[in-house]
Write a structure and sequence with these properties.
The chain is built from 21 helices and no strands. By secondary structure, the protein is mostly helical. Helix 7 packs parallel to helix 10. The chain is globular, with a radius of gyration of 21 Å. The two termini are about 30 Å apart. The mean pLDDT is about 85.
Amino acid sequence: MKTENRNELFETTPVPKAFLILTLPVVLSKIVSLVYNMADTFFIARTGDADLVAGVSICAPVFLLMVSLGDLFGLGGSSVMSRLFGEQRDEEGKRVSGFTFYGAIITGIVVAALMLVLRGPILRLLGAEGQVFFYASQYYTWIALGAPFIILTLIPVNQLRTEGLANMAMIGSIVGSVVNIILDPLFISVFGMGAAGAAIATVLGNVVTDIIFAYCIAKKSRKLTVDPRMSKVSLATAGAVLAIGLPSSINNLMNSFGTAILNRSLIAYGADKVAAMGIASKVNMLVAMVMIAFAFGAQSLIGYNYGAKNKERLREIIRFDLLVQLVIAVAGGALLILFAPQMIRLFMDNPAIMENGTLMLRRMVLGLPFVGVFLVCNTLFMSAGKSMPTLLMSLSRQGIIFVPVLFILSGVLGFDGVIVAQPAADLLSALFGVFLLKASKTDREIF
């Protein structure tokens, strides 16, 4: 695609068409990525060992930590680059891509070393003990070793879209995911590696994705780079990347923190409750991940038009984005409620886990429409470079809102309070996002 045609996509192509061109590849790649994440849970759950499932579920915050660090550079960089490209400052945008690419690699190496040194304390902090600790340690060790590759994956997948190369981002994600899906049953069941096998398959899938992304940037892109000589940026530009990337990173850190707190609350009711929540969460992500993909797939379109000061087009994009979010949330949520028992049974045909997993899933999906509103507000702040509202949004849903809600509801309702805490927090987070739109006057700038 020629550069002028890529600019046409952002500037003049009808909004629904431009929105779908940029977001559908992201949605498809996210779905495949979700399938391989679910494959870990599926093949592990088929062993029938609740402790094994709980061990892998307890490590979910560790993976989310790496995603948060990838977003520090990936989402922060793509937000800055979208606005720079909208302002026709392509050379500066290219340097941002180099800075974030190598920044992610260095960060991944440091994280891997720290996580291996602190393995025992971190696993105990997450609530692992006894046999659950044994399985969690196997999974954790290999995920920690793969930290540089996992973190790096988040950089090109976000930035290729800023140049209209969403299809290439999709191809890299899908190929890596397929590799993971193929290796999962081999390592987990055939070779009998259990939790370690699931982690190794995940790391190798990310390695393949990184190789494909690096090739696409080097051979197909005009605005991005993997040349280390093009990785130097000014302190002001680096600060702009981190100002948006840090809140995005904190958002995932809060997801990690919230998941850890939730698992610690559930472990008191037994490992089967943690396993049931791990399975229900993966099923819920079938819809939530599609919503997230549409929201962040539209980020480059929003950022470009915000940088170009095309307010009329920007308003149309945001309205269409919100409509898409609500339709997916309502339709997808209804399907999950209807088929919840069957979905849980696919993973583990255990009466207790099926009963609890079904209940948890049906409660969880009630928050999906509010998640849609939250996502639109969050990506709008991020694309517009509004660092303080972005930071507050990142701290809210799984942190300053979720944790108090969890403690209050669990204290009042016990187990029932634990499993309704998330949809309650989703409602409050959506209201908080709308409040910030008004308080920051962002709504006046656009509407």
